[in-house]
Amino acid sequence: MPEAQETLLEIDLGALAHNYKTIRARLPDEVKFMAVIKAYAYGNDSVIMAKKLQDLGADYFAVAYTYEGERLREAGITIPILILHPQPVNFKNIIDNCLEPNLYSERVLKDFISLAEKLNQKDYPVHLKFNTGMNRLGFTPKSFKNIPELLQKSSSVKVVSAFSHLAASEAWKEREFTLTQIYNFRKIAEGLLKQLGYQPMFHICNTSAIFNYPEATFDMVRCGLGLYGFGNGKSIDEQLKPVGTLKTIISQIQELDQGGTVGYGRIFKATHPTRIATLPLGHADGIKRIFGRKKAGVYVQGEFAPIIGNVCMDILMIDVTHIDCKEGDEVIVFGGPQHATQFANAGGTITYELITGISQRVKRKILHDT
Question: Is domain 31-228 given the CATH code 3.20.20.10 in the classification?
Answer without folding.
Answer: yes
